[in-house]
# Entry
Amino acid sequence: MILDARQPALPERIETDLAIVGGGPAGITLALAMADAGWDVVLIEAGGDRFDKAGQDFLRAQSVSPASHSPGEMYRRRQLGGTSAVWGGRCIPFDPIDFETRDWMPAARWPIGYEEVARFYPQAMALAEAGAAEFTTREADPRREPALPGLGADAVAERIERFSHPTDFGAWYRKRLTQAAGLRVLTHAPVERILTDDAGAVARGALVRRADGGALTIAAPRVVVAAGGIETARLLLASDDARRCGLGNERDLVGRYYQCHLEGTLGTIAFHPPEGHAAFDYFRSHDGIYGRRYLWLAPEAQRRERLAGMVLRPAHPSIVDPAHRHPILSAMYLAKNMIVPEYARKMTALEHDARARRGGSSAAFHLAHLRNVVLGAPRLARFGVDWTRRRILARRKLPSVLLAERGGVYPLDLNGEQEPHPDSRVLLGDERDAAGMRRAVIEWRCTEADRARMIAGVRVIAAAVNRSGAATITLDDADAQAWRDNPVPVGGHHIGTARMAASAAEGVCDANAELFGTRGVFVAGAAAFPTSSFANPTLTLLALTLRLAAHLRGVR
# Structure
């Protein structure tokens, strides 16, 4: 059942086998798995059923540095379903190399092996509604021709990413959450701290601060914190009744090793012939799931060159600059206020940069976009019909588009792995939100080695592609330096702030995601990842959550 914690009829104390803090994909997955196993479960969500813009202020950070990192409240949702409400649906697994010890990134090590996670990928894919766990073109659509014939071993072009509906876990699983025996979901129930014994050694539950100022105690011998990379660190640090340092923080590691993926435009690709771009467009797999190829830096090249994981995707020019003369891109820009607020805000920020380069007034900038729309109206109309059919009206939505470029030259979007580093961190500030919780301070740090690895990786992929003759990748020194001077983190990927490790000297929780210093408190989600890979975290956090569920069922 789903209960609103603001209702006065609720008791002051609820007892349960398992309390889960956070109603996003990890929390919902764990709650359903444990309820199905016969456990009594309370899933605690700070927000309500739906998005409430006012509630986002609770996620606002006291400060964020550097400026290239998005504001703390962006790309997150304080509601049942969490950030899956704005998730794009991309599903990519981690790879065996992500679990290897890589001495050139000394903190990049997992206490478990690849197979420990990979065996849960099929079930995770089913939960995400993303089809079979098939991540090569040979598996997904054997009829497809190779994207880049003659491609050397240093780059891989036949791996694919798969896409869910995208699945909003709160909406999609609402019926199961309502009907599952032994499961209670509390909404509007912000957790103030994790409860332990007087020594902070054993879990006792969670304390919810109600809207009227009263307290609601969720008494449980096991507590799982599944609140996302930023809020998980914030809650563990704020749970300082028994230990002034907070829970799991005896070695000052909670909040450290904070990672985001590195992104940006690095180079261009020209296909030979120009129609070759179609090999990297979206397609439907044999089971009806949208997929798309990407260019992956091969594991052998990563080891030989001592690099990190990364992929490149052909993209369209920047939407915000009307110099592209695309009616479709200009229409997207002019309609920016009708899309997800985070992406509209990002476009507005990019507009200032584009206007600074071009000069001229805001009115002239918008008139140039309008001119593109008018002159390209027939093309835009054809696109609009197709977009309406495959995106707006479809149950399984077309994720995006790769528009044909005149001349066949496309910018390359980078998505890369960041090295875990202790100086990159989330900590608590002095300011408090309306509920009295100390706000987060976000200090994201990207090392010079991170920057060098990304640029070197692009050049390795470029050499492999250029030798094939099927395409030409160009990265000039000026563009490489421009990215190096201002690397950008992916706004919605918050990773590593309560990392699992082989010992308390290296991390916050053990191989089963249980805090080293507090028995019965566990971490679920990307906060527990020791490394980020290049892959979007959702699929792997679902797999790790299913692994945690299997562990909990075995130790009851």
